[in-house]
Amino acid sequence: MNVSIQNVTKRFGAVAAAEDVSFDIQDGELFFLLGPSGCGKTTVLRLIAGFYAPDAGEIRFDGQPVNDVPPNQRNTGMVFQNYALWPHMTVAENVAYGLDVRGASRDEKERRVRDALAIVRMGDLAGRSPAQLSGGQQQRVALARALVINPGILLLDEPLSNLDAKLRLETREEITRIHSETRQTMLYVTHDQKEALSMADRIGVMNAGRLVQMGTPREIYRAPVSRFVADFIGEMNFLEGKVERAANGEVAVATVYGTLTARGDGFQPGQPVTCGIRPEALTPAHDGGSVNLISATVQHATYLGEIEQYTLTLADGQPLRSLETNPEAVRRPGEKLTLTVRPEDIILLRA
Amino acid sequence: MNRQNTQKRITNYESRVTPTSVGFTVLLAVFAILFLFYPLGYIFKAAFWPNGGFTLEFFRLLFTSPFQLECLRNSVLLSIVITALTTVITLPVAHWFTRYSFPGKAILSGLLLVPMVLPPFVGAIGVKQVFARFGSLNLLLDKLGLVPLDNGIDWLGAGGFWGVVILGVLHVYPIMFLNVSAAMANVDPTLREAAENLGARGWRLFRTITLPLVMPGYFAGAIIVFIFAFTDLGTPLLIGYNRVVAVQIFDKIVEVGTNPFAYTLVILVLLVTLVLFFVSKKLTGEKSYEMMARGHTAGAETPAPPRLRWWIYGGTTALVLVSLLPHASVVIQSFASHWFMTILPDQVTTQFYGEVFHHPLTLSSIRNSLLYSSLSAFLDLILGVMIAWLLTRRRAPGANLLDAIAMLPLALPGIVLAFGYVAGFNIPVDPKHPPAAWYQWLHDFIDPSVNPTVLLVVSYSVRRLPYIVRAAVAGLQQTSVTLEEASLNLGASTFRTLRKITLPLVMANLIAGTILTFSFAMLEVSDSLILAMKEAYYPITKGIYQLIGRVDPNAPAVACALGVLGMVLLAASLLVASKALGKRMGQLFRA
């Protein structure tokens, strides 16, 4: 099912939890809403489920406006953050509930409950009560309960936030597997960028009630449109500067650390810009001939085996983070280091 | 134009109109108008506009009649004395039970609450046997050589004043105890520690820190006690202390159509209780909730020092024993074939219990009480669920109003409501002119002088509604809303969700609340005395009242046996309720 959110605003008192939010989720897509807590992503999810009605704007399912459709007629399947399994029903009864409501025959109900529990690998525990299940198992039942009704869209509200680190990884793969097997349209809300980057077809990044950027994980990571997005997703060094020259897609930026060459269009000489550089793009320079050389002093080094993380300081004292894969030498605090970055790895952000 | 339309359609789901919420609201509104506002409005109209025009004439008469003034003075004095005595008894006990730990504490605190469920009305029968001029207590004192019988102490004093006080205090001190000890337990121990750290201790610490923090809780309890004392009908009536407002209202029921004076008295009682109720609401306000939300802090209790421990055991046991005395005497009396001028009866018999089950009045009264109580508990269950659901799951604009109306019966004395019903639902039929069929039906079905069943059931329900609403609200608040959202999300309707998910989850609370309303209805006094006018419809309480007044020498003992049966029923159902509710039961009785 296609879901279309058009200029939706939702206020709670004076606070706009979602402001003029627009995006489309394509049929079969695994769409992520990513943002810090309080950014309004859960509000958008609940607007789609129908637990809130928008103050302005329209929500459409396959082109049909659903603003006035109550939640119990929207056919969305929701996985709640706290799972919300009914403690007075068994696993099977929890999963069968939505089918009961839809008046499924007994045979059909049994078959579909069995299939749904098989998909989440919980077939053996159908007769248990939710209190007897571990957190990860409860999570799977909640998923089965939402999937079994063949929802137009599956809504997942921070589904992994109550799991420990190992289970989180497993369940991530589980959801990805289920998505690729069923091609179920899904909206997944999280504040965890790793979940979003590794699983999403597309990501919408939210901040303070607004949708600030939308794109594939690669686009979001490689070309963030704002300092917020750049900072929130992954790590980023920010170096302030001014455009010196701009021609043929090449931009020279003057900074106090030297002139940096970057790629970009539509910049004017004299324009203030911020150069965003990911730590992994900033590596020790091996020979003297390359461009974009930055010298810094090692403050602290953390050895992680396959990589080494450096915290450095620039000439004016600004901190800088860098990574070296397969580190060749031991760098000690106080050591001077010359770093380099490829022009295409510098993200130019208009101030 | 188009834009305006779309904007109009957009509402919050939380307040979105569903058939279920509309249905509930309409049903509740009809019920409230019919059985709460109409009878109260009727009283107001009859008191201020008796002949169409507004007049304060009856209030002038009330405040110039020496007799009425005496009744009013007696009622106020009674309430003040009962409240003061309750305070004196309760404060040290509450202090002991919140600050110290000692062996047997759980049992003792349970025993302390027992008198609350023993109807003072039944105790009133026993109090005479024990405390009268030639009652057991004076006979015992004489025998022990402490006070000679010729000089026996007049315990009931001043025409029964002290008898009413004793019964009142012994009945309501648990309510004060619950309120005060809750307030004391909610005082963050670090607040006291901070004062101790700065050098305050003992009395100074209590006066400057504990007392001000406990005050709102204390006043809330004191106001409940005061309202109870001011409006209690059964105890003074049975003791024979008739010059109080409540008994005066009861006496004027028969002339309800002709004497507007009674309305004035009812209005007075209503105003007093309403004012006090809102004062207490203001006092408890939101602050007390805030403190409660922080929860109890562990380590606030210290082991009681050995010397103090004996004070605690002695004081608490004495209090419990004395409060059980009237009811114990009722039990003894129900087995006594002859009890006169002796400490304990000479002969024991079970014949009165046999009579209870053969006597036409007692048998029908037990049957009636069971019927009325079951129906009213059922009605309360339905009303309570609807109200609690609207309150917790649909925070609609009218929620505060609904909450206020649901809690109003706490401030609504039984005599006021029952009086309003008798006056407002008086549906006379002139036998010479047969009325329309619907009118005849109203007359046969609603008019309490014909058949009080409907109004008795409704009045029991209305009076106990706050308890079941609280029980249901507490259950709903403990149940996560997402459990219901999950059901809506899977396509279930609001009503199906309520039935399949919400209700099963709060069942324990609902059962407990229903049992509570059932058992209190069994021994409800003022509504029963006022509304049941024909012997065939008497419930247990009115049956007891009727038997006590009979000349038949066996009648008082049969009344006692009936009272004991009532208490046994009450105790059994409360036991079941406390099993279901556990520790939370005490919370239902706080302000």
Describe this structure in words.
The complex is a heterodimer of chains A (351) and B (591). Chain A is of the alpha+beta class and 351 residues long. Chain A is 24% helix and 36% strand. In chain A, the strands form four sheets. In chain A, strands 6-7-8-3-9-10 form a six-stranded mixed β-sheet, sandwiched between helices. In chain A, strands 13-12-11-14-20 form a five-stranded antiparallel β-sheet, with no helix packed on it. A five-stranded antiparallel β-sheet of chain A has the order 15-19-16-17-18, with no helix packed on it. By secondary structure, chain B is mainly α. Chain B is 72% helix and 2% strand. In chain B, strands 1-2 form a two-stranded parallel ribbon. In chain B, a hairpin with an 8-residue loop joins strand 3 and strand 4. Chain B is globular and about 75 Å long. Chain B starts with a helix and ends in a 10-residue tail after the last helix. The interface between A and B is medium-sized, with 36 and 29 residues.
